[in-house]
Amino acid sequence: MSGPTGLQPGASAGGAAIDAALYNPASHFQTVDMTVVTNVAWSVSNQALLSRLDVLVAPMVIAKLYWRCVFAGSGNYDIGLYSASGLVLTRIYNLGSTAAPEGGIITITLGTPITLQPGVVYYAAIVCSSTAQQVYSVSGGASDLGVPGYRAVTADTSFPLPASMTLGSGGVLSTGRVPWIAGGPT
Questions:
Q1: How far apart are CA 13 and CA 15, in angstroms?
Q2: Domains: count for the chain
Q3: What is the CATH number of the domain that holds 70?
Q4: Does some domain include residue 3?
Q5: 111: domain range?
Q6: pLDDT tens-place string over residues 91-115
Q7: Apex CA 50: angle with CA 17 and CA 77, to 5°?
Q8: 144 falls in which pLDDT band (50, 70, 90)?
């Protein structure tokens, strides 16, 4: 499970107030620590970024997803969750093509909550149809799926998010950024 580090409820990250609920690692996930993210322009239209999640302790109910948009851009976005079986990812939720939002922390309420199970590998995914969109992310060259905070892969021509994807050889594809995505029951 990707748990939060370094922040206390009510703190600020990148100018956004932090919701106390997002910082309970027993019930919420984050793909990376929000204190280390910066605004990064979407570099390739229709290229999805996926971040690996490991739910290690107990089942985790996801009723909401969150991501941080820098400012209103053009185009659309999609956000979702995948379960993994080897290198095959199967979509278990996606919002669908949605107009680019105003800036800030974006909250998506799932129509039906999803329960993530321990021992199953999941990926949080986001894709933008335009390079005008800016998403809070961690930049860096590392992309090893086994390294916390740098467990991201890319998938080209993925707008909106497809029903399934197959990861590249060995499950490691290079990317220079890991988007901040969070989720939980509240």
A1: 5
A2: 1
A3: 2.60.120
A4: no
A5: 12-184
A6: 999 999 999 888 888 899 999 999 9
A7: 65
A8: very low
